Amino acid sequence: MTETVVSTRVLGSSNPIAKKFRSIKSAVGGIGCGFILLIVGFVLIYQSIYGVKEYSKIVAALPTSKATEVIANQDLAKVSGNATNSAGVSLSYTKCQDKFCNPFYTTSAKIDNLYYYEYDKQRFEIVKHVTQETRTKDVGGDEVEETVEVVTYPEEWVSKEANKAFGSFTLGTLAVQPNVDTKTMIEMNTQEILEVKVDNIPAIDFLGQLPGPQVGSTKMIIKSIPALNDKPVIVVGKVENNIIKSGDPFIVTTSNEAKLLADLGQEETFQRIALMLFSWLCMFVGLGLLLAPILELVNWIPLFGGAAKLAAGVISFVVATVIVLGGYVIMRFWYVFVLLFIGLIVLAVFLVAKSMNKKSAEKTT
Fold first, then answer.
1. DSSP-assigned letters across all residues of 70-134
2. Which of 24, 34, 256, 363 could cysteine-pair with 286, CB 3.0–4.6 Å?
3. 49 plus 135 within the same structural domain
4. Per-residue pLDDT tens digits for 273-300
5. What is the C-alpha to C-alpha distance for residues 273 and 276, in angstroms, rounded to an integer?
6. What is the C-alpha separation between 286 and 327, in angstroms, rounded?
């Protein structure tokens, strides 16, 4: 590891009071970022409700048809049956005897009859990682900020070649041609093959470091699905001239319909939860930035600084949670609040009118 100072900047006097005023100024400058994070949090709440496409409902609404029941052109169809005439793909590679991969001691290998495969060929190398750190120190009565470049040379696996391919099959009278846009909901087999040949890669750069014994080794990670011959499948997609090769969604699965819908629903729920968690995080950090100037001022009071930070953290946690949950309820059931608001207006008008009529009747008597 090496460290190099790439830049220095004088922040000001190292006097504690001057440093505190700089901290307060910096905290005040973060208020704008706090408001931005709060807005982002509300946007994420909205996205969690209305931004997740509900493919489970789209697929559930489609009638399950046999291939003979589907017309030649249909915007979206859900077809079930047994896959036939599977045109599988093959993955060929060269196996080496050791990491030097002497061409006289290699063997050719192939994995045949696959519906789908993806592979990633990697080599174990010395890699240069560069990070920057900001440090402050006192120099001659001034606080100086240094930007330090830290360079490390770890040994790790580096991807050198990756690819994927799909086979095709027929479903009754329909030809199914999956591609990279296909949502394949089938369990994949994963295997790792050591010492494979990787074509057209440069010689290893040791970067001036002493290499470990594993440097130069190669491996290939393969994920694959066997051909679907005679397996029951469900295909959801757009039918064009008796061919399914696109659609929103375009799904191929060997699961039954109940599991397909459950898996789609689970994915949608996960997306919503992830958006809500990111929303909460934005709210929490944003509130922390809004409270930062107050905390900097309170830090001047002996014994109260740590307690104030703890209290601010608890307040931010509680308020962020309330805002996220409250925002979700309001955005999700906004129509209920609109009806309540209209009801309150109608009630107020009725009470005012009733009061005025009562006063008018009293005057006449």
1. S-SSEEEEEEEEE-EEEE-EEEEEEE-SSTT--GGG-EEEEEEEEEEEEEEEEEEEE--EEEEEE
2. 34
3. yes
4. 999 999 999 999 999 888 888 777 777 6
5. 5
6. 16
